[in-house]
Amino acid sequence: MSLIQSCPSLSLVLLILSVPSLGEFEINQSPYKIIVQEGGSVQITCSFTIQGEPVGVYLQRRLTEKVTYIQNNGDKFFDRNHTEVFGNVRNFTVTLHWLQKNESDLYMCDGTIRIPSSTPKSLIPIRGSGTLVIITDGIYNGSFSRNLLEDSQTKCSRNDSSAWMIYVFIVLVVIILILIGVFIFLAKTTQTAFKHCYKPKKKANQNIVYEDMSYSLRRNTGSNPTYYLAS
């Protein structure tokens, strides 16, 4: 029995270690910042430049409120009116019309991609760099932009930290399971070898010869003693 067969968790950790770091998976998103007057329109473009099969991508505000969703089969779902989408899931542009001041926010492309090189195929979360949309009433306030950007970046960093903590926890659990599996495998192997080496040998069959002493009682006869073979 091989080590991988005796410890199935080993294949899982090899799969995790073979997947590239999450930092390599990012959606190209542009522009970085848009300032538009109330009632205007903005366009946000999201595109993939990495290998893999996109499953679907959301355009959402601050990672919570979804605006639209694009699937790999071309279906589109809208959670906001006055929204248009052009392109496919690998490269698309979202146009938001009739924007209001309360819609000033950080808009991000967030989705999943399927990695073809792994078996089974793994789903990896991916995210764009974000587009800061600022809707004004004709007077641009720079401090509002900075506060909004800082708040959005703080929330993003918290989400990234949580994702990495979960990832590290899973890896630690898998490593512990592997160590337990290796220990059990070595214990069984040692036990089997010990039994094989110190197995008691069977005693060889011994033939015992019994002499018939009855001839000593036969004093008047000259017969030879009779021998019996007992097994």
Report on this model:
This protein is α+β, with helices and mostly antiparallel strands. The chain has a domain at 23-165: Immunoglobulin-like, CATH 2.60.40. 30% of the residues lie in helices and 34% in strands. It contains three helices and 13 strands. It has helices spanning 3-6, 9-18, 142-197, and strands spanning 26-30, 33-37, 42-47, 53-61, 65-71, 76-78, 83-88, 91-96, 105-115, 122-128, 131-136, 208-211, 227-230. Strands 1, 2, 3, 4, 5, 6, 7, 8, 9, 10 and 11 form an eleven-stranded mixed beta sheet that branches. It has a two-stranded antiparallel ribbon with strand order 12-13. A hairpin with a 3-residue loop joins strand 4 (53-61) and strand 5. This is T-cell antigen CD7-like isoform X2. InterPro entries: CD7, Ig-like_dom_sf, Ig-like_fold, Ig_V-set. GO terms for molecular function: signaling receptor activity. Pfam families: V-set. The chain crosses the membrane at residues 164-186.
